[in-house]
Q: What sequence folds into this?
């Protein structure tokens, strides 16, 4: 039995074919707190069934998925405990370096393999999101790469939903900037601090536990030339007023965690707060938005 490893459970429901996959995906996105991972699969056998599953660390999330299953006509709902193992060690061993524009994100086990012509970001996969493998993180790094090619320079950066701190560190690796990475999850804050120290940028990147911009350090450091926010479409819409208050004309926001079909809705909200679209970066069904503030 491994100690210090979160107990994970997989909750699975077989749902009858009426709801579209998008409806189920939206419903999964709305679960609060969200599952650590989720999946939707068509049975593909003519039965018209969907398998909807989520991996959870906390029982209340399972209850939410059970309600979701019930709302969509499921007659089976199963929760199983996943065998304990050292997930962090397993994930670390399996991770390979990820390239995005001029950046390469890698674990310490790959340090020797990174060439000199890349900007390396060493990230240990712990219990935080942001190893560069997800399309949304890559989208943000590619968006940053594009801003650099356009000659954009940022001195003050905020990373809302910073996870491992990868985006804040990317910004401080290309500009003499200071950055604040805020995450609602205190475990992510600890992980980000470790990564920031390992990359030698602790004097320029501070990591705080905060929901959105609600932290004195974020208030004191505003206005920000650049804000990253790789959280989901719903929370992005909710923090739009805070984002607009934290930026001035000429400021840029890189927003991600947006399913491509949700992008128009996010853009509509941010237009109402003075933002215009500079660029869209679509990857694997996700869209990263680069928005410029023109108040
Ligand atoms: C998809 S991860 C992004 C991590 C990293 N920035 C990246 O791009 O890979 C989203 C992170 O946002 C955090 N989060 C979600 N909602 C938030 C909110 N309202 N305020 C701050 N952090 C939030 C989550 O805890 C999670 O660590």
A:
């Amino acid at each position: 039995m491994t100690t210090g490893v979160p107990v994970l459970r997989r909750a699975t429901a077989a749902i009858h074919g009426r709801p579209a996959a998008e409806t189920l995906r939206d419903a999964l996105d709305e679960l609060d707190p969200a599952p650590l991972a989720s999946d939707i699969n068509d049975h593909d056998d003519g039965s018209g069934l969907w398998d909807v599953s989520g991996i959870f660390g906390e029982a209340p999330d399972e209850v939410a998925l059970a309600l979701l299953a019930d709302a969509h006509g499921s007659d089976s709902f199963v929760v199983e405990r996943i065998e304990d193992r050292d997930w962090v060690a397993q994930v670390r061993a399996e991770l390979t370096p990820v390239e995005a524009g001029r950046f390469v994100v890698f674990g310490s086990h790959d340090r020797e393999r990174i060439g000199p012509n890349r900007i390396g970001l060493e990230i240990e996969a712990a219990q935080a999101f942001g190893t560069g493998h997800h399309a949304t993180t890559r989208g943000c790094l590619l968006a940053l790469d594009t801003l650099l090619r356009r000659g954009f320079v940022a001195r003050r950066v905020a990373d809302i939903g910073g996870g491992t701190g990868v985006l804040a560190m990317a910004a401080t690796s290309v500009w003499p900037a200071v950055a604040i990475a805020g995450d609602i999850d205190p475990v992510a804050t600890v992980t980000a601090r470790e990564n920031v120290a390992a990359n030698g940028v602790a004097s320029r990147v501070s990591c705080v536990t905060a929901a959105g911009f609600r932290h004195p350090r974020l208030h004191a450091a505003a206005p920000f030339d650049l804000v990253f926010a790789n959280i989901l479409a719903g929370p992005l819409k909710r923090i739009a007023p805070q984002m607009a208050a934290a930026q001035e004309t000429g400021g840029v926001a890189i927003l991600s965690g947006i399913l491509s079909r949700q992008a128009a809705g996010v853009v509509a909200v941010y237009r109402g707060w003075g933002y215009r679209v500079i660029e869209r970066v679509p990857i694997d069904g996700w869209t990263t938005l680069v928005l410029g503030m023109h108040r």
Q: What stands out?
A: The mean pLDDT is 87. Residues 128-130, 136-137, 140, 159-163, 166-167, 182-185, 188, 211-212, 230-231, 235, 257 surround S-adenosylmethionine (CB under 6 Å). Residues 134-293 form a domain with the Rossmann fold fold (CATH 3.40.50.150). The first helix runs from residue 21 to 30.
